[in-house]
TrEMBL record:
NAD(+) binds at G11, A12, G13, A14, W15, G16, A138, R253. Sn-glycerol 3-phosphate binds at K106, G134, S136, K189, D242, S252, R253, N254. This is Glycerol-3-phosphate dehydrogenase [NAD(P)+]. Its EC number is 1.1.1.94. Residues 178-314 form the Glycerol-3-phosphate dehydrogenase NAD-dependent C-terminal domain. HAMAP family: NAD_Glyc3P_dehydrog. Keywords: Cytoplasm, Lipid biosynthesis, Lipid metabolism, NAD, NADP, Nucleotide-binding, Oxidoreductase, Phospholipid biosynthesis, Phospholipid metabolism.
Length: 328
């Protein structure tokens, strides 16, 4: 990788800001690019943004709306939402240099059913693609709270060197070559977290939420294995780890979105204002599962709720009324 000491981050939301600070803490100069010219000028001047309240951008982070500033970077972290990852990667593709791109979004592209690194490879074919995922609220990472995540690339040496760009005293990076496993965990857990939020919001009890986490994990594992993920990865940070985090905390926007739905809000009102990736990924996930014959009843109920084809009571009845089966 060229320019070892400069890391680029594309996308100046909560996660982009937190990752920019993490890369700075790990010893790099950082260029943080955002598309909103006025917003980036304000961020450069104040070092603060409503996206991540209470957090100050590190001095080593340069905030800019000039995409060309990402050209000389050693690596570029793509931290825009999953459905915007293609557009961002297409903009990055022609930049000078050959920096690898690291997908930091958690989702599956609607329509194409492409996983995040597939999107990167299609949109920027000349660059290596990697994926970062794991249990990590941006606010926690930015506050320097202890956090561990996984970064995967097909090339083991690349995965290791990308990890070094982010690894710090409070942010522990694990490297992996199981790209598919890492990206599936992050995408699927958001859909399942919506189900847990719905159950909590409707007051169905902690036992119901625990059952959804466990049976949701069975779905995530079945889906992952059908798409070539290693079971060790699915049991790890980006699978079970992130599922547990996101399914248990209203700090998660996906769980909070489900909470609002469970309390009777409409899909439109529950989703207004904050990014809940699972709401965008649910359809792709369930269509892909159906096409491979993978049984995902909880994710399918989430999709039906979002489409208005089921209400919460109908979803609970549908799940509880399924034929008895062995636990697998
Ligand atoms: N916030 C968190 O705790 C974490 C978020 N993530 C993932 O990171 C991704 C981004 O999430 P956040 O930063 O939290 O969202 P956010 O809503 O805080 O920020 C998204 C940013 O992307 C920008 N953006 C949207 N569309 C764009 C486009 N077409 N081109 C350029 N910029 C665009 C927005 O202007 C905004 O600055 C999501 O996939 C999320 O699942 C992953 C781990 C933690
Ligand atoms: O991915 C996350 C934590 O690992 C953030 O979760 P939310 O997008 O649901 O807030």
């Amino acid at each position: 990788m060229a320019s070892e000491s400069v890391v680029g981050v594309a996308g100046a939301g909560a996660w982009g800001m937190a990752l920019a600070n993490a890369a700075a803490a790990a010893g790099s100069e950082v260029v943080l690019w955002g598309r909103d010219r006025a917003g980036m000028a304000a961020l450069a001047a104040t070092k603060a943004s409503d996206r991540l309240p209470g957090v100050r951008l590190a001095d080593r982070v340069t905030a800019t709306a000039d995409l060309g500033a990402l050209g000389p970077c050693a690596a570029i972290l793509v931290a825009t939402p999953a459905q915007a990852t293609r557009e961002t990667a297409e903009r990055l593709a022609p930049l000078a240099g050959s920096a690898p791109l690291v997908a930091c979004a958690k989702g599956i592209e609607r329509g194409s059913h492409a996983f995040m690194t597939e999107v990167l490879r299609q949109a920027a074919p000349g660059r290596a693609a990697a994926i970062l995922s794991g249990p990590s609220f941006a606010a926690d990472v930015a506050a320097g709270l202890p956090t561990a995540v996984t970064l995967a690339a097909a090339d083991d040496a690349l995965a290791r060197s990308l990890c070094r760009l982010l690894h710090g005293p409070n942010l522990r990076l694990y490297h992996s070559t199981d790209v598919r496993g890492v990206e599936i965990g992050g995408a699927a857990k958001n859909v399942l977290a919506i189900a847990c939020g719905v159950a909590a919001g409707r007051g169905l009890g902690a036992s119901a939420v625990a059952a959804l986490v466990a049976r949701g994990f069975a779905e995530l594992r079945r889906f992952g294995e059908a798409f070539g993920a290693r079971s060790q990865t699915l049991m790890g940070l980006s699978g079970l780890g992130d599922l547990v985090l996101t399914c248990s905390s209203p700090q998660s926007r996906n769980f909070a979105f489900g909470l609002a739905l469970g309390r009777g809000e409409s899909v439109g009102r529950a989703g207004a204002g904050r990014l809940a990736e699972g709401a965008f990924t649910a359809r792709a996930l369930t269509e892909m599962a159906r096409a491979r014959g993978v049984d995902m009843p909880i994710a399918t109920c989430v999709e039906a709720l979002l489409e208005g084809a089921l209400d919460v009571e109908g979803a609970a009845r549908a799940l509880l009324g399924r034929p008895q089966r062995g636990e697998e």
